[in-house]
Automatic annotation (TrEMBL):
Key words of the record: Kelch repeat
Organism: Mustela putorius furo
Coiled coil: none
Protein name (record): Kelch-like 11
SUPFAM superfamilies listed in its UniProt record: Kelch motif
Superkingdom field: Eukaryota
Pfam families linked: Kelch_1
Length: 137
């Protein structure tokens, strides 16, 4: 950001629609990082319980999309984060590589298993048709 733009963003008031539309699960988070990129807001990590003994650190990240005017849950981070600092940086695509895999949602996992079962049944039926049956009884 240019210095003038950064000063303007810091001095500006947060829109009421952003604050009023905060999801309930975000309101109970403590120790989260907040990042402002263009007109979008990101809330990253934190913990759920304020009990010092059993803090549930979080992998979740939320984004307020100014274009759609709503909050979205982002894919989980590989490790939980709390009291982190967040900022926007540019990383050239050629340096982005890794094996990060996101967990498959339950409804898609069930659908994938069902499709696999149907394929196995179909293959079994085709094999049964191909096996020559004996002509002698």
């Amino acid at each position: 950001l240019e210095n003038e733009e950064a000063v303007r963003k810091i001095a500006s008031q947060v829109s009421d629609e952003i604050l009023e539309s905060l999801p309930p699960e975000v309101l109970s988070i403590e120790g989260a990082a907040i990042c402002y990129y263009k007109d979008d807001v990101f809330i990253i990590g934190g913990w759920k319980n304020s009990d010092d003994i059993d803090k549930q650190y979080r992998k979740e990240a939320y984004r307020y999309c100014a274009e759609r005017k709503r909050w979205m849950l982002l894919p989980p981070m590989p490790q939980p984060r709390c009291r982190a600092t967040a900022c926007h940086i540019r990383i050239p695509y050629r340096y982005l590589h890794g094996t990060q895999r996101y967990p498959m949602p339950q409804n898609l996992m069930w659908q994938k298993d069902r499709i696999r079962q149907m394929q196995e049944i179909h293959r079994h039926a085709l094999n049964m048709r191909r096996v020559p049956s004996s002509q002698i009884e």
